[in-house]
Amino acid sequence: MMKLAVLATLAASAAAFAPQQATTTTTALAGAFDNEIGAASAELGCWDPLGYVTDGDKERFDHLRGVELKHGRIAMLATWGYATTWSGARFPGCEDFPAGHDAILKMGAANLLPVLLTAGLLEISWKQKEGSFAGDFSATKFPVGFGPYARNEQDQIDLRTRELNNGRAAQMGILGMMVHEQLDGKPFIFFDKFDIYAPFAN
Fold it and tell me: Are the beta carbons of 51 and 28 closer than 8 angstroms?
C-alpha cells in the first residue's frame, strides 16, 4: 500500500512538469488598437480593462485619444505652472497672488476671466485635421504641431509617443501635487520648491 502511495506521488510530481496544451485566452487587452502608439507594452497591447474600445470602433478610439492628449497637454502646463509659481515666479501685476490652491480662491473673477476666455478661444479655434491622427490641430492658422522636429514619419511617431507618455505622467503629477499640498502643505514631498528654470535670464 505504501509503495502505491509513493508511486502515485511521484506520478503527480512528474505531471506538474509535463508540457501543457497551449490555450488562447481573449481578454479586454486584446483588440484592434494593440499597435497604436502609447500601448502599455508589446505583450499587453492596448490596455483597456474596462472595454471602452474592444469593439474596434475607430471613431470612439480617436475621440478618447484626443481627450487623453488634451488632458495631458493641460496637465503638463499645469505641472509646470504649479512648480514655478510655488517657487516664486509671477506674471507682472500678480506678485501678491499666493501659489497652489489659494491662487484660484484669491485671484478674483477679474483675473480668472481672461484665463477662462483664453481657454474657450483655444477650444473653439483649434480644429482637428481631417484624416490625420487624433490631436493634430494643424488645420488651424495658429502654428501648432511638431514643426521642424518631425523630419519624417518615424520622428513624428516618436514625438507623438513622448507627448502622450509625458501627458500621462503629468496628469498623475499634478494630481499628486494638489493632494499633497492639502495633506501637509508640501506638494513636492521631498523638497520645498523647484529652482526656477529661466532660459532667457542673464
Answer: yes
28: left (phi over 0), alpha (psi -120 to 50) or beta: alpha
Q: How confident is the model at residue 148 (pLDDT cuts 50, 70, 90)?
A: low
Residue 20 has pLDDT above 90, yes or no: no
For residues 73 and 170, is the Cβ–Cβ distance under 8 A? no
Helices within the chain (DSSP H only):
2-16, 58-86, 101-106, 109-125, 153-184
Closest alpha carbon to 133 in 168, 170, 171, 160: 160
Residue 34 pLDDT: 81
- Please list, residue by residue across 52-61, b when 16 or more beta carbons sit within 10 angstroms of its beta carbon and e when fewer do: ebbeeeeeeb
3-class SS letters over 95-110: CCCCCCHHHHHHCCHH
User: Are 125 and 138 a contacting pair, CB within 8 Å?
Assistant: no
Q: Give the model's confidence band at 171: pLDDT under 50 very low, under 70 low, under 90 confident, else very high.
A: very high
Provide the 10 A C-beta neighbour count for residue 91.
Answer: 9
